[in-house]
């Protein structure tokens, strides 16, 4: 009878260990997926910042160049701004 009781206790202990291991595995899988998402998000944000800086500085250079062509630097900014306004309206409608 005692042998039967120890078998049940051992079975219960193994089931408890299996449950704890399964919970730990689920936690580690969640951490792994979270780390993948965060690293991907950070790298995409860095690329976006670099691209935004490129576009911003290119627009300033374009505005200055157009301004020199028309004779007044501030006209270049107005022309480039009007171009982007027309482009936004075209894409909106």
What does it look like?
It contains 2 helices and no strands. Helix 1 (2-70) packs across helix 2 (73-92). The protein is rod-shaped. The relative contact order is 0.05. With 93 residues, it is mainly alpha-helical. Helices cover 96% and strands 0% of the residues. The protein has helices at residues 2-70, 73-92.
Shape: rod-shaped
Distance between the termini: 84 Å
- Structural class from helices and strands? mainly alpha
Strand fraction equals under 5%
Q: Total helix count? A: 2
Helix % is over 70%
Rg from alpha-carbon coordinates? 32 Å
Average pLDDT score:
92
For the record, the count of structural domains works out to 1
Tell me about the largest β-sheet: none
Beta strands, count:
0
Unreliable runs: none
Give me a quick take on this structure.
The protein is mainly alpha-helical.
Question: Can you lay out the helices and strands and say which pair or pack?
Answer:
Layout: H1 2-70, H2 73-92
Helix pairs in contact: 1-2
Keyphrases for this structure?
93 residues; single chain; mainly alpha; 2 helices; rod-shaped
């Amino acid at each position: 009878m005692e042998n039967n009781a120890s078998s049940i206790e051992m079975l219960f202990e193994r089931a408890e260990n299996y449950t704890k291991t399964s919970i730990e595995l689920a936690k580690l899988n969640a951490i792994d997926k979270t780390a993948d998402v965060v690293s991907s998000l950070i790298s995409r944000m860095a690329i976006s910042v670099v691209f935004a800086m490129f576009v911003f500085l290119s627009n300033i250079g374009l505005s200055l160049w157009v301004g020199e062509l028309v004779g007044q630097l501030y006209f270049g900014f107005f022309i480039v701004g009007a171009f982007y306004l027309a482009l936004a309206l075209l894409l909106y409608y």
